[in-house]
Design goal:
It is built from 13 helices and 14 strands.
Length: 397
């Protein structure tokens, strides 16, 4: 039997321009974003300006992580201790973690069979709970109908915060992911669309929200050194009223990211080529169900999710994942009761208290398998992977 030998966690090298600039910064010793000389603009400030221009928004803050950006987004938007915050039941642990860190209480929303937030359940919670915030997680790159989402938020006066960790470069009906809500948060962790190991962005069109976010990030009184910030008058009172949570991005990571940003558009297309190859290969396997990608969605296919209907018990799913792994194909199972690695089911977050009953989400996740599609793969690799998946499904007891 043919095995697959490439690692699923291997990323492409940082572009040489980024490596060269990072070495320059290390030789200068000026890694801290505010360690600049007269007339010099810090690498982090340059990155903020460039990412804001890329997204088409006026304000951007470079952060130490995407999770930190989510936390600060809620605080900058005015979340009060104990307030409920709507969020998808299917997401990664940093999202409810950020809500908890900001003093909020996650209010989990069902998902549909396409891994997007269930709009009917979302509206029912907006009606019954009257929350002020919805942190929508575009989990694994799946965009809900964002026009419908924003209409609901406007109708019920809910502040929309987008978690775009998996949708940098994506869009809905021609409008970029991250430009629908009051605030958007992006991740630059290693497995995201640009890679600095850890890092993130907070973007907004609201000057006061950005001023508070900058102060929260640990700018001290150096807020004028940011590359995509509001004018200094906006900070007059905010600078004295806002606590410092110290979550800045450093110049070293900013240099690494600046070299990758111009490549993002082409890389999105490369991911989508891999995604389409995987989609075609998996569609040939009778027992596999894939999500439907709406025509209005431009996705970035850096991973793919599928559900083998022939696997009807947890033991069968786990056995299948184990057998695929033995042949070099690394799959993650989001339906396991016991969290594994990056994956966890919502009812394992026991710090939230008693888990709600969300039958649709549990049903969808019960046999949902997730597979990364790194740019170190090519379409020939995808064919081998799909052949292994098909072979092992045939061997399921």
């Amino acid at each position: 039997m043919e095995n697959f030998t490439k690692p699923f966690t291997r990323q492409e090298a940082i572009p040489e321009a980024g490596i060269d600039r990072a070495v320059e910064i290390m030789r200068s010793g000026k890694l801290h974003r505010y360690n600049t000389e007269a007339g010099e603009t810090a690498e982090a400030a340059l990155l903020e300006k460039e990412f804001a221009e890329y997204l088409g928004v006026p304000y951007c803050l470079a952060c130490a992580s995407g999770g930190y950006a989510l936390h600060v987004a809620l605080k900058a938007a005015g979340l009060q201790p104990g307030e409920k915050v709507l969020t998808n039941a299917f997401t990664l642990a940093p999202v409810p973690g950020a809500i908890n860190n900001a003093g909020g209480v996650p209010l989990l929303v069902e998902i549909d069979r396409n891994y997007c937030v269930d709009l009917v359940h979302l509206e029912s919670l907006m009606q019954s709970e009257a929350p002020r915030y919805f942190m929508i997680s575009h989990m694994r790159g799946h965009l809900a109908d964002m026009e419908a989402v924003t209409t609901l938020c406007e109708q019920y006066k809910v502040v929309l915060i987008e978690d775009c960790a998996h949708t940098m470069g994506a869009s809905w009906n021609g409008k970029a992911s991250g430009t629908f809500g009051s605030i958007a948060c992006f991740s630059t962790q290693t497995y995201k669309h640009i890679n600095s190991g850890e890092g993130g962005f907070l973007t907004t069109t609201d000057a006061e929200i950005m001023a508070r976010a900058i102060m929260h990030s640990g700018s001290y009184m150096l807020y004028e050194r940011h590359g995509a910030a509001p004018d200094k008058d906006t900070f007059k009172d905010i600078r004295l009223d806002t606590p410092n949570y110290s979550g800045r991005m450093d110049n070293l990571r900013a240099a690494i990211l600046r070299a990758q940003l111009p490549l993002l558009k082409d890389n999105c297309e490369r991911w989508n080529e891999l995604y389409r190859a995987a989609e075609t290969g998996l569609q040939k396997i009778n027992s596999i169900e894939l999500s439907e990608r709406p025509s209005l969605e431009y996705y970035v296919g850096s991973s793919i999710q599928f559900r083998p209907s022939s696997l009807t018990t947890p033991a069968q799913v786990q056995d299948f994942v184990t057998r695929c792994m033995k042949r070099g194909v690394e799959l993650k199972w989001f339906g396991s009761e016991d969290p594994q690695g990056f994956t966890s089911r919502y009812d394992s977050w026991r710090y939230l208290g008693e888990a709600p009953t969300l039958p649709n989400t549990l049903d969808v996740l019960s046999n949902t398998l997730d597979m990364r599609l790194p740019l170190t793969f090519d379409t020939a690799d995808i064919k081998v992977i799909c052949d292994i998946i098909a072979s092992e499904l045939l061997n399921t007891d």
